[in-house]
Amino acid sequence: MRRSLAVLVGVSLLTVAGCSSSKPDSKDTPSAVSSTPSSTPTVAAPKPTPTAVALSVPMYQRALTNVEKVLKPAVVRVMNAPSVAAFDASRKQLAAAVVIERNELAKITPPSGLVSAHPAVLDAFDAYAGDVATQLSKAGDTKTGCGFPKAPDVRLYEAKSGIRTAYAGLAQSVQQSIGKGVKFGAVSVPAKPATPAVIGGRGENGDVFQRSGSRGPGSLKIVNSGNDVVVVVTTSNPRTPEASIYVRANKSATLNGLRKQDYYVYFKSGTNWDAKNRRFTESCAYQKFDDIFSGQYAWTVTLTKSPLGNAPSSETDAF
After folding, report:
1. 3-state SS of 226-273?
2. CB 139, CB 162: distance < 8 Å
């Protein structure tokens, strides 16, 4: 730019010299630098911060429905996991997806009628992780309440039930926060998992599932007024019975064919009967009658707690 101005000024001076005989004073020669026009920088005005636009109720509903659609595949993977290890991997994926969707919801501006409800929705998502930890505490136990190894299918069932309970709790909390008019949970809350046979399992009343040795004339009738029991007849150790019979609560059953010999009567009660291993897995209690029974007679015992009973019993080790 400066070179252009210098050339233009030089041409102008030559023209003047051709018209006058006087020599121009060098002090009067204009400076190319001084002829450069000054420029003032233009400062752009700051752009106004955009105002967040509140969603309409239908748009807010679509946002929640979209969250459900995103989370549903992760929920399905958890509930279809074939093993505890596969469940744990799927559970972590679901937990990460819940955090992501919670953060996406935090970016939206709710309808005016749901301004106070929206923070509660976010709180419900935040509480999900803690609810999962609480619900999975039971599934983390590797032993039953009676101290036996917990079956893998039982652990997996308890884990899936815990996840379902926690996720259903999330959906319920969100629904309670937003109230009527907007829905959350119908799309993604899973069905209850199938219950393993041992959960709530019971034997058949009167089922003699263990028997050894020859038969005799003796009999033992059991009238059970308490919980489900297994009655064991043995000459020594209840782990090696002459016979074992299952008697349901508030039922009676008779064990026939007892040999002409003295024997002891043991009984154990509980819940969640494991037919494969022939034992209760929860709420176990083990007892024996203190008296000795003879196989020459027909006996009747009533299993109930009563101060008037004439056949005292004592607690014993597990069998």
Report:
1. CCCEEEEEECCCCCCCCEEEEECCCEEEEEEEECCCEEEEEEEEEEEE
2. yes
- 198-209 pLDDT, tens digit each: 999 999 999 999
Per the document, the length of the chain is: 319
Q: Does the pLDDT of residue 25 top 80, yes or no?
A: no
Q: Which two tokens stand for residue 319?
A: 């069998």
Please report, as a single letter, which amino acid is at residue 154: V
Distance CA 125, CA 96 (A): 11
Element (H, E) at 282: strand 279-289
Q: Residue 17 has which token pair?
A: 């010299």
What is the maximum alpha-carbon separation in the chain? 163
Alpha helices in 108-245 (DSSP H): 117-135, 152-178
Amino acid at 261: Q
Asked if 281 and 146 count as a contact pair (C-beta separation under 8 A), the reply is yes
Amino acid at 90: S
As a whole-number percent, the residues of the chain with pLDDT over 70 amount to 82
pLDDT tens across 221-266, in order? 999 999 999 999 999 999 999 999 999 999 999 999 999 999 999 9
